[in-house]
Structures are given as C-alpha cells and as structure tokens.
Amino acid sequence: MSAAQHQALVLGSVSFVAFVFFLCFLLPARRTKFSVFAACNLLFVALMFGAVALIDLSGGRAEIMVAVMTELPVVLIVAWVCLALAGGLPAQLGNLPAEPVARRPWLRAVLGSPPLVLLLCVGLATAVGLIWPSPAMRVYAPAPPQFFILKGLIMAPEGFYAGIAALVFVMAGRAPGLKPRFYFKNLAFAVGMVCIASLALESTVFAGLRVWLAGEGRRAILETLNTVEACLAISCILAFTAGLSLRYTPAVARTLLHRLQTGWLRAQEQFESLEWRAVSAGEADRLTQASDAVVAACRMKGLSESDTQKALATIRLVAVMIDPSSETQNITPEAARKLYELQEEILRDDVLASKLSWAAGWRSRAHEPQTVKSAPLHDALKAALDLVDNHGEGEGLRTPPLWHYIVAVSAADAKMIDPAHVSMRLRDGAEHRAAVEAYDAARRALRMLDDHD
Amino acid sequence: MNVDVPKRDLAGPFVARLASFWRPLRNLGAARSRVDGSRSLLTAAEFQEELAILGLSGRRFEPEDYSDALGGYLNISIAVHVIPDSWYPELSRQLAISGLLGELRYSEQMNMAAIFVPGSLPPLVLTLTILHELGHLAAGDLLIEPEEQPEEDIQHDEEAEFTTLPLKKGKKLARGNPFAEESLREREANLRASYALFAGCLGDENPYAHDMYDVL
C-alpha cells in the first residue's frame, strides 16, 4: 500500500466512523437539515477515500479528478454553513440569518457569496489540474508549482470563508444574556470552522512544501503535517457533533405563539377596540347613564380602582352585546366565550402568563403593566357572560364580588337585561341588597348633580 | 396616515429614466432582495430579522424602545402624542366615528413623524395602535410614490404573493417594498404590531429569536 493509499485509508476510516456515529446516535435524536447534509457528505468522503485506498490511482488526469472530488464535501459544507449564517438557504431549509449577520448587510453579502465563489474556484482548480497534471494523490511525491496553484485556488477561499463563519459563530455566542446552551453550541461550531480553516491552511502549506522543500527532513515534516491534518479532521467532526447534539426546546412553542397571535390577540384587540368605538361614538345609548352610576356606586362602596374598572368594562360589554350596532355585531356571547377560553389557555401556561404584559400607557413605566389576568376584560367577560347568556352555567360565579352585583343591578335598571334573570342568577342576599342600595344612592347623587347643572 | 410631500426639484425626464434603469440593477445586486414587484405578507421570522437590525432581537422591549430604535435607524424623529380626552374631547368621538384608532402624520421636509392616539383607548389597544402606526413607518408605506396607482389583488391568503410598489428615495426597515393595495398595507401593519407585542413580551423566550442563534 502506497503512502497515498495509507493516508486515504486513515481519512476514509475517520469519515466512516463519523458517519456511523451520526447515523446511530445524532440523527435519531436531532435531525436538522444540516445534520442530514453532513451525514451524506461524510458517507461520500468515506466512499471516495475508500476507493482511493483500494485502487491505486497514481498518474494522469484521473488523479486530479479524484483529488478535486475529495475536496468537494468540505467545500460544500463551508458553502452550506455560510449560506445558513446569511439566511440564504431556501425557506423550507430554514432561512433566518444569524443575529450578528442580520445587523451587518456587508457580512450578509460576503456570506452569501461562497456557493458561487467556491464552485468557481473548484472549477478553475480542476482546469489547472487537467491542463498541467500533477501527482495530487501521491502524498509525499515532489510536485510541480501548478499543484500549489491548484491547491491554493481551493484552499484560500475555503479557509477565508471558514474563518469568517468561525468569527460569526463567536460573535453569536458572545451575545449578552444568551442561554448557556446556545453559547456552547455556537462555540462548538466556531471550533469546527476554525478546524476547517486550519485544515485549509495546513493543506496549502503541505502543497507548498511538496513543491519547494527538498532534503532529508522533507519526509518527516510532511508526515508530521499529515498527522496534524488527521487530528484536525477528527477535531472538526467532534466539534460539529457536539454542536449538533446540543438541543434547546423553547419554553413557548411556535405553534402556540401563532395560535395566540391569530386567535387571542386579534379577538381581544377587536373586543376592546369595537367596544371603545361604540362607547366613544355614543352608539350604545343606554350605556352612558348606566356606566356613570356603576362607577359612582363602586366608589361609594369603597371598591378598588381595579374592581371599578372591571365593573365599567362589564357594563360596557353587556351594553354592546345586548344592543349591537353594525360595528359591534361581532361582539357576541359566543365570541366572548371563545375569547375567555383563549385567555384561560394562556393563564394555564405559567411562562406565557407571566411574560405576556403590556404597558398601561405611553412612557408610563411607573404604572404596573397589564396582563391577561389583571386586564379588566378577563373578569368582565366572565361577568358579562353570566349576566347576558341565558344558556350558560355560570359555574365560576357562585359567590360573585360586589362589583358584579352593582353591574347586574345597573344593567337590569337600564333594561339591558331581565331583572328576573338577575334575581334568579344572583339570589337576594346581603351583597345584592348592598349593591341595590349603593346603586340607588349613586343614581340619586347623579340626578342631583344633573339638576344642579 | 398622512404624508406631507415637499415640492421636489424637477429633475427632468433624463434623471427619471436613469432612475428607472438603476432600480432593477440595484435590486439585482441586493442580497436576497425581494423587491421584485410582488411578495407575500410579512412572517414572524422576517420580522425577527427586522428586530435584529434594530438591536432588539432576543430582548424584552416596550413600544417606546421600538419607536426609539426605529427612529434611530430611519434617521427620523418619531413623536407619539397620547391626547387625553379632557384636552380634546372631540378627538375620540371623531376617530371612533371614522373607524380609526390613531393617526400617523409624516413630514418628509422636517424629517419627522407624529402619531396621535386618544388617551381613552384601552391599554392593549393603545399599545397595538402605536405599534401599528410604527409598522407603517418600518414598511416604508409613507415612501410610496404618490403618482403610483394601486392595483387590486384577488387572492388574500397568507401564502399568496401580492403586488408591491416602487418607492421614492428614503429609508425603510422592511426588506420588501410596500403593497400596492392599501388593505394589505393595513393588514401587514397589524401583523407587525402583533409580532412586536409578542417579541417584546417574550424577549429571550421568543422561539424566533432562538433561531438566530441556532442556524444549523
């Protein structure tokens, strides 16, 4: 077996072992588009080197073709990684760029160019090799300067792009507040790309030494470099394996997020904005008096601002649902129940419920932000459904708060709902009597104010 | 949304013709440019790219932060005016009757944009309305050539491609050009607002932000 065959056997074996490892351990656990692509590449490399180890391809243009073919998988890996970092892969393969690249258009343009540049360079190198054949596969044989040009044409851009990719992985890994798993993942890929860049440099130096180095120590130096090459190849594979095996499952699933964006947010925004329009445009005629009385009654009973807001939101909802205009016809008990269920779904998810919040006003960080739970609409939906929906069970309101009674009394007085329904729903207890008293007092006070004006 | 367009110099037909030659060349050179006359609606992933450009990807942020970052990127001053009902009681009524929740004014001459929203809006609606108007600025909707005639698209599903319009000189955050149809521009501004709200709330728990650190 010649030195070239021996070298091919070593590299082929490493590639085959890596392929088997990918197939048995990595792919079943984490199948990404890149891991499948890398596995295919490893198999291709193993087959190529295996063929070279078995068949002595010394001399002629066939040797050049085989040499170029063995470089192709690494070239393709570098091109894929660069395109992935630039967000240039087709949409079905994942098309978001790395964060540092998104902010730098020039970097994006550089990382988007490897497929064209690298393939052009490989084509040029092949042309050089075919015009001036050289012993490309005979590892220690002296070579003409054209061999250095052939190697340089492939290795210089490959090393450059691998170096840039390594730099981007380092930048991505250094992002402040990044989760440790992403830090180590990007670090592993950075090491892998540094190994590829080092391999390209080593390969160029090796080619130069084959052309220009002579004397006794030549063979020993080339053998040392060969060992370095094998070590770098193994390190590269291990680094990529480590990077690919690090998984992170987001606390909020993408499908859930999409459902909330198209379901909950749209519905809640529609409810609140249509209700605001109806109230602001004065479309719900019976509402104005009723809402003033509700607010006054809540304040007389010393209820908190939060409870007063809930009472106000409830009376508005009841008014809009009972007396829908063309604008508010979408605010129906069915739609309200659906929205309430979506809110409950969010509240069952601790992470989501704690994260979802919005400011109570513009540049008002002093105020507590609203959440799905704290926003008046959540409790208002439940209360309004209990008052309006004759078919509902009203399970959650066995002991309603005082503001709920006040709204019920007010809505019944304004003929929005049937008073008999209110009595049946809320029963005549102490809270109900207190609400009636407060509401009557509020109405009297408002009437006196009106008379005074 | 209103635009105050300054009186432009009459550059002449020669310059206009040069510009029409330059536009496709510029689009050819841009990396992955989608300025090709049609595109689909903005996706959450594409919005994440915009956030990364503004330096907000993976961070919790408020609409104020988004407004400041967007103003800085576009190099314009963005002022948001929340008008209390007691100051101008008719504003809410007028807006409600006209079916609007807020108003965006843009002056090209003064390099500034102003958003007006009534203070009586519920907090979530207020937040989404401001983000919606900021979304118009990000999309470059205010840079549409006034003489461009919008074309009606028939398909309206999310995957469909819709006609876009060329822009006059000016900076925008979005990679694609604004849609020709106004309803689509409004729909995309709504999408931007909802993406911004969720991204701002979730911060580093946003799965789309993760994708930018996990590209392989």
How would you describe this structure to a colleague?
The complex is a heterodimer of chains A (453) and B (216). Chain A is mainly alpha-helical. Chain A has two domains: 3-245, Rhopdopsin 7-helix transmembrane proteins; 254-359 and 368-452, no CATH class. Chain A contains 18 helices and two strands. Chain A has helices at 3-29, 33-54, 60-86, 99-102, 105-112, 114-131, 145-173, 180-212, 218-245, 254-280, 287-300, 305-322, 333-348, 350-355, 376-388, 402-413, 419-426, 430-452, and strands at 357-358, 370-371. Chain A has a two-stranded antiparallel sheet. The longest helix of chain A has 33 residues, at 180-212. Chain A is rod-shaped and about 115 Å long. Chain A starts with a helix and ends with a helix. The model of chain A has no long low-confidence stretch (mean pLDDT 86). By secondary structure, chain B is of the alpha/beta class. Chain B has one domain. Chain B is 44% helix and 12% strand. Chain B contains seven helices and six strands. Chain B has helices at residues 12-29, 44-54, 63-74, 89-98, 123-139, 182-202, 207-211; strands at 2-4, 38-39, 77-83, 103-107, 112-118, 162-163. In chain B, the strands form two sheets. In chain B, strands 1-4-5-3 form a four-stranded mixed β-sheet. In chain B, a hairpin with a 4-residue loop joins strand 4 and strand 5 (112-118). In chain B, helix 3 runs parallel beside helix 5 and helix 5 (123-139) crosses helix 6. The longest helix of chain B has 21 residues, at 182-202. Mean pLDDT of chain B is 80; it is low at 5-35. The chains are: A mainly alpha (453), B alpha/beta (216). At the A-B interface, helix 3, helix 5, helix 8, helix 10 and strand 1 of A face helix 2, helix 4, helix 5, helix 6 and helix 7 of B.
